[in-house]
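Work Package 4 report. The design task specified in the project plan requires that, given a folded chain encoded as structure tokens, an amino acid be chosen for each position. We show below one input record used in the internal validation round.
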């Protein structure tokens, strides 16, 4: 611990975002970076606590005190080695992780100015790529083959760990490129897709094979590929995510202009990658009043995307009550994750936000969406226990909208019984969650595969 008084003398400093008037006109990453000197000072604030709650809260078990200390001392390569010991993809989590570690940081309890772990880890991994600390690691093969179905964060993590253990790994992906929701769900203004491409190139150099545009079924422990190229694998990892979005079955759902959030987000990312869509296929918010139904991160991503497409106005509604303004959450105290009101960079760009709003009906004219009938509600305790009871509170009203985006989460997949050499990980196993949890699940599953194949 290089500076034991830094947390008292140096305030938390975030890199912040590009100005709103600048960033809403492009899909470049909105987050800025600090200088090397400023980043080292931020790393020095880590107190190397006797009980590192950051390590406890991180699904990957990242050793933030160790690599923050190395960063502060200017030992960038050591910081990278310490970070990569537990996290195979810091360039992803360093950009999009909600930083569970920072909410559990003792400094968050002390003065609500936790160590900037997320930004620090992003700086470390970018320095590692820039300085050449990252080179392909070619393992000695053990003669066994493993298939991974799905190239999202969980599948990539499982493939990376298994490959380094010596297994010959083939990743099957239904889309035209790897990344899963990293590529097709998260906007470029949060995660530039060149970052994903850089990592995939490295994994290919290390011997992992990626096959795109194919789906697979599993029978008797065998991966059956839809292109007829069926291969026998010693083990199979299913990392297919949560492909089914939660729908809203109310009158008018069939109207043109009502879409799932990922229909917009994935299409926009494909457009930025150079793919063409016809006028009828194109989903755009340009010149429209937009309503986002759902108050989570996916809804926030829709807001930022709508602004960049040139929308007229965005409204976001949520059926649940408004979270507390925070930073403390009396119902979920430190060091647990606080359920407090979150204002993202997309919200800062302009958005009407409302809570306790129930959707009653989609309204339209000649098959085209024109508005949404909603009603303010309240939640009362259930006398029988369990989920609170929804009760009407206000009168129905109409929100003008030519585009509605449903961002209400995803349904947890159901799986049949699989042979003992088939393993399920990530969102496919646990339901929709954080990227960092998907990566942790992929690592854990890879270890289970290795235990099975070496027992």
């Amino acid at each position: 611990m290089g500076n034991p008084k830094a947390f008292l003398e140096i305030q938390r400093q975030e890199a912040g975002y590009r100005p709103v008037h600048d960033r809403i006109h492009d899909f470049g990453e909105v987050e800025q970076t600090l200088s090397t000197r400023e980043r080292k000072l931020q790393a020095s604030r880590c107190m190397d606590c006797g009980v590192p709650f950051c390590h406890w809260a991180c699904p990957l078990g990242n050793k933030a005190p160790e690599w923050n200390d190395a960063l502060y001392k200017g030992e960038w390569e050591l910081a990278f080695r310490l970070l990569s010991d537990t996290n195979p993809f810091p360039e992803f989590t360093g950009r999009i992780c909600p930083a569970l570690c920072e909410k559990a940081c003792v400094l968050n309890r002390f003065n609500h100015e936790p160590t900037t772990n997320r930004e620090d880890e992003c700086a470390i991994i970018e320095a590692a790529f820039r300085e050449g600390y990252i080179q392909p690691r070619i393992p000695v093969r053990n003669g066994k083959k493993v298939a991974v179905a799905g190239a999202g964060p969980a599948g990539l993590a499982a493939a990376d760990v298994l490959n380094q253990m010596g297994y010959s790994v083939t990743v099957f992906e239904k889309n035209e490129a790897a990344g899963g929701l990293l590529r097709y769900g998260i906007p470029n203004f949060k995660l530039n897709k060149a970052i994903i491409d850089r990592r995939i190139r490295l994994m290919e150099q290390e011997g992992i094979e990626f096959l795109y545009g194919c789906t697979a079924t599993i029978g008797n422990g065998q991966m059956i590929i839809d292109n007829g190229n069926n291969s026998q694998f010693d083990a199979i990892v299913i990392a297919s995510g949560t492909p089914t979005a939660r729908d809203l079955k109310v009158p008018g759902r069939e109207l043109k202009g009502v879409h799932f959030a990922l229909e917009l987000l994935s299409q926009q990312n494909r457009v930025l990658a150079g793919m063409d869509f016809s006028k009828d296929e194109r989903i755009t918010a340009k010149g429209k009043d937009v309503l986002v139904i759902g108050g989570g991160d996916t809804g926030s991503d829709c807001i930022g995307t709508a602004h960049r497409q040139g929308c007229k106005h965005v409204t976001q509604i949520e059926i649940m009550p408004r979270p507390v303004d925070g930073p403390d959450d009396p119902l979920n105290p430190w060091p647990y994750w606080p359920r407090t009101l979150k204002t993202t960079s997309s919200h800062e760009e302009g958005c009407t936000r409302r809570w306790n709003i129930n959707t009653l009906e989609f309204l339209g004219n000649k098959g085209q969406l024109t508005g949404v009938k909603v009603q303010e509600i309240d939640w009362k305790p259930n006398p029988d226990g369990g989920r609170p009871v929804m009760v009407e509170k206000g009168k129905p009203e109409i929100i003008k909208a030519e585009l509605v985006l449903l961002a209400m989460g995803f349904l947890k997949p159901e799986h049949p019984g699989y042979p003992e050499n088939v393993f399920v990980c990530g969102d496919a196993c646990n339901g929709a969650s954080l990227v960092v949890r998907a990566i942790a699940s992929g690592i854990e599953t890879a270890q289970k595969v290795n235990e099975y194949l070496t027992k």
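The first helix runs from residue 6 to 9. Validation will be extended to a larger panel in the next phase.
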